[in-house]
Amino acid sequence: MTTDTQAADRDGGGRVPPAGGRLAVATVALGLFSLMTSELLPVGLLTSVGHDLGVSPGIAGLMVTVPGLVAAVSAPLVTVAAGRLDRRTVLAVLLGLVAVANLVCAVADHFAVVLAARFLVGISVGGFWAVVGGIAPRLVPPERVPRATAAIFAGVGAASVLGMPAGTFVGHLAGWRTAFAAAGVLSLAVLGCLLALMPAVPARRRVRFADLPGALRGGTGVRTGIALLALAVTGHFTAYTFVRPVLRGDGVPEAAVGALLLLFGAACVAGTFAAGAPAAKRPRRTAAGACTVLVCALVLMAATDAGALAAGALLVLWGLGYGAVPVTFQNRILRAAPEPREAASALYVSAFNTSVALGALLGGRAVDTTGPHGALWAGAALAALVPLSLVAAARARRPAVPSPAPAGAAGPGGAPRAREGSRAAR
């Protein structure tokens, strides 16, 4: 916890009792889970929604593009606008907004109405994620902040593991409208828990617009981290947004798609935990390795006509690679960022969601032009730029090795120059 945070707590920010803090952390994690589930829900329902509302799979992918773009803008805007408001009030409003949006999707009879509701989802996701990025120090003692932060952001991974696959399963059993309605009811339930269990969290310090570019000027670690994160996440979502049409085109039964997506989500979580320690010690190598695994999985899936078993194996490989990406780059960006770290957190959320939207848009273009497997090739090409850039940067940082002098040439004192060059090389 920073000095500013400690001072704020002493100045009346208040310390939540341990039991209340744990409940509040759990509620915030559930809130993030419900919002990220809402953002990712269309990934498993594109075919059904597109068929019922008369749009192509590529156009249906706008259900992912629109909230991603809006979240990218709303993350810094809500962070600044909410500076003097109680954080519980801000989070409650955003949860209520996403609940309304999901319920509107459930009854919409035109695709334009669905897109308008997805606009509201984007506002909620961007604002909620940015606000909760720095809320853990307000809820638990300093020694528990890292664990509480990890618990809160576990909601993001849980949305991939449980939320989106569960929504796909519900959509298969009872229709996509029921899946959106269930997401709306979930958000309302979490809203009730937040109002009942989370204490007031008064405004402590507001982030100014001037702090946002200041975070980028803090060092090359922030700028390059955000750029490489954008490439990796864009590549992933270029392919992942259309994984359902890919699987169906490869002959995977409709009933098996939800199970395979659940398997993918579990692999993502495993990749996240596996990358935790290496990302802290060797972030560049971890990022390069994770994106290499991601690229290999996409290329293999694009190049082979995989059945259910082979697709499951490749989805595990894909999940292991992608699961390591967010935690690796988040650690790198936040460690390199100047104070206030909330500004860098908002930029991270903005870059992440912009990449989700851009990936869905590029994938939609590829699908409509070359078919579902075109999205896999496009995603692999984008993600491959990350390890290539990291390798090139590592080579550029290596000190130059002096060229050996001609044989017999002597340096000062009569020592052969070739021998000096050999020692320098070692």
Task: Write up this protein.
This protein is mainly alpha-helical and 426 residues long. The protein folds into two domains: 12-206, Up-down Bundle (Growth Hormone, Chain: A); 208-397, Growth Hormone, Chain: A, CATH 1.20.1250.20. It has helices at 3-13, 18-40, 46-53, 57-60, 62-81, 87-107, 111-132, 145-174, 176-197, 211-216, 220-240, 243-249, 254-281, 283-303, 308-336, 341-370, 372-397, 417-425. The longest helix is centred in the middle third of the chain and has 30 residues, at 145-174. The radius of gyration is 24 Å and the shape is globular. The chain starts with a helix and ends with a helix. Mean pLDDT is 78; it is low at 1-14 and 408-426. It is found in: Cell membrane. Residues 24-398 form the Major facilitator superfamily (MFS) profile domain. It is a multi-pass membrane protein. Residues 417-426 have a biased composition (Basic and acidic residues). The chain crosses the membrane at residues 23-46, 58-78, 90-113, 119-140, 152-174, 180-201, 222-243, 255-275, 287-303, 309-331, 343-362, 374-394.
